[in-house]
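Blinded run. Sample ID left blank on purpose so nobody reads anything into the name before looking at the predicted structure. Input follows.
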Amino acid sequence: MTIEKVLRETLADMAAEEPPPHPDRFLRSGRERPAHRPFHRPALALAAAAAVTVLALGSTLAVRALSDPAPRTSHAAAQPAPATARVTVAPGLRLSDTLQRLASATGKPVGVFTEAAKDGTALGLPPYAKGGMEGFAHPGTYDIPATATPSEVLASMVARFTRTAEKVGLAADRAPRDVVIIASLVQAESPDERDMPRVARVIRNRLDRGMSLQLDSTVLYGLGKHGVAASDRDVTSRSPYNTYRRRGLPPGPIANPGEAALRAALNPAPGPWLHFVATGPKTLKFAASEAEFRRLVDERERNRPSE
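Blinded prediction complete.
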């Protein structure tokens, strides 16, 4: 039915309508009120005309609501539950890779996570983090609501780190930052959790003797590279993370260690080792002398697959 036709019928019906009732009708008590009477057609027609006029103006939502015979539900009930993204952050993952994984899981730009990671106060980082999140984005599986902001996601990772730090006794250590740095090195250099306490002992022993750590993992981190072995050119870089050229610990963590690595850094295994060598993809052996170290290097070369 067109707007013009509805309006014509409405006006015609209104012209034939009976005169308005006497005012006394509306002043009677409730007991004297007459029985309910159905709406006259003019009122219905006028409502229909108004609805069609609304449609002509572009407000289709109101018209559909009037004509929809189905029961109406509240907006909240009709809305689906917010989606949740599940992401697993493995121990030893660098912060840059962690942020990329969070961005992929949530569909948000990685830049917003990178920016959020700069606000250490909002994230609840401990003072010894010195405002940097590397090392404090604790590994684990996270269920991220679609409504969560990047800052809230990262703060939840820091909160999990804080709980783990309390659990393993990190807060009681006199140099908690050094422990986190060592734990990140242990995490990067250990093919198996069972190796971690001995790797931690090697690092502690070398530090105690004033020896350079000579770890490829720190060199690669400083150069923004991934891999297992640094090249001859890599180890000549002037990066502060080049532990071949610089003695002592690197300036910060190189990854986000898990609970096992934190425990190992706090409680290294007793032993005289000063070296460890990966003689196979999953095999780490330890040496206390230079001669023993050379024998392990030879073993590694023998086990290296031929090209």
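Unblinding after everyone has recorded impressions. Confidence is low (pLDDT under 50) at residues 2-8, 10-78.
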